[in-house]
C-alpha cells in the first residue's frame, strides 16, 4: 500500500470518528425536539421485539436517533465522502464489480433499485449512479416535495451531488418514471413510507399499513430488472447490501408489493437501529 493511500485511509478514519463524536449531542437535541418521533420509534421497536423491557426499548430508540444523527452529519460532508468512498466500505472493489455485472446484464431493460430510509441511502445512491454511468444509463431518484423549501433544496442538492437526476414526487412522477425505464435507465425508489395516502392494504413488519402501489405499477408496465439495495454500518466501515429480486410480470400488484416488502424486511432486519422511520407509517399510528 502506498504511503499516500495510507494517509487517505487515516484521514477517512478521523472524519468518521469525529462524525460519531458529534452525533451524540445532535441525537440528544433530536430526541428532545421530536417527541412524536421518539414515541413512534418506540412503538416500532416494541412491535419488532415484544419481549423487551422499557429500558431496553428506550436504549434501542436512543441508538436509532444516534444513527440518524450520523446520517445527517455525513450528508453535510457528502461531497467529501464520495471522493474517498472506496476507503470506508468493506470489500468495495468486489462489491462494486458484482453490482456492475448485474447492471450490464440488464442490457437495454430499465432497472429499479428499491431501498429504505436505512443506513445512508444517499451515500449508497452515489454507487448506483456511478455504475449506471459506466453502463451508459442515467440514474434517477424520486424525491418527495417536503417543507420548508430550503430542506427540499438541500436534499435535492445531495442527490444531485451523488450523481442522480431528480424526479419530484407529484402527479407527473409516474409518467416520467415510466419514460425513463422504457429508455433503459435506472430509477431509485425509497419505498418504506407511503406519501401518497393511497395504495395497497397489506402487512409490513407485522402491522397493517397502506403500501404505495406505484412501484408495483412501474414493475408490471416496464418489466425492469429489480434489485433491493442498502448501505449500512458494519463495525467501523460501511457494508453494501445488494440483491436481485426475482418476480413474474404476470403477478398481481398485491403479490409484487408483498415481494418488495419481504425483501425490505430482510434488509432492515440486519440492523433495525439504522432504519429511520419517525413519522406515522402504519394504520393506527396517529392514535397510539
Please outline the helices and strands.
Layout: H1 3-33, H2 35-48, H3 54-76, H4 78-81, H5 92-105, E1 111-115, H6 121-134, E2 139-143, H7 149-161, E3 165-168, H8 173-182, E4 186-190, E5 200-204, E6 207-211, H9 214-222, E7 225-234, E8 237-244, H10 253-268
Parallel strand pairs: 1-4, 1-7, 2-3, 2-4
Antiparallel strand pairs: 5-6, 7-8
Helix pairs in contact: 1-3, 2-3, 5-6, 8-9, 9-10
How would you write the strand order of the largest sheet?
3-2-4-1-7-8
Overall shape: globular
Cα(first) to Cα(last) distance is: 55 Å
- The ordered H/E elements are HHHHHEHEHEHEEEHEEH
- Helix-residue proportion: 40-55%
The total tally of domains equals 2
Structural class by SSE content: alpha/beta
Instruction: Outline the low-pLDDT stretches.
Output: none
Describe this structure in words.
The mean pLDDT is about 90. The strands form two sheets. A six-stranded mixed β-sheet has the order 3-2-4-1-7-8, sandwiched between helices. It starts with a helix and ends in a 20-residue tail after the last helix. It has two domains: about 5-75; about 90-275, no CATH class. The relative contact order is 0.15. It has helices at about 5-35, 35-50, 55-75, 80, 90-105, 120-135, 150-160, 175-180, 215-220, 255-270, and strands spanning about 110-115, 140-145, 165-170, 185-190, 200-205, 205-210, 225-235, 235-245. It is globular and about 50 Å long. Strand 7 (about 225-235) and strand 8 form a beta hairpin. By secondary structure, the protein is of the alpha/beta class. Helices cover about 50% and strands about 15% of the residues. It comes from Thermodesulfobium narugense DSM 14796. Pfam families: Lip_A_acyltrans. Keywords: Acyltransferase, Cell inner membrane, Cell membrane, Membrane, Transferase, Transmembrane, Transmembrane helix. This is Lipid A biosynthesis acyltransferase. GO terms for molecular function: acyltransferase activity.
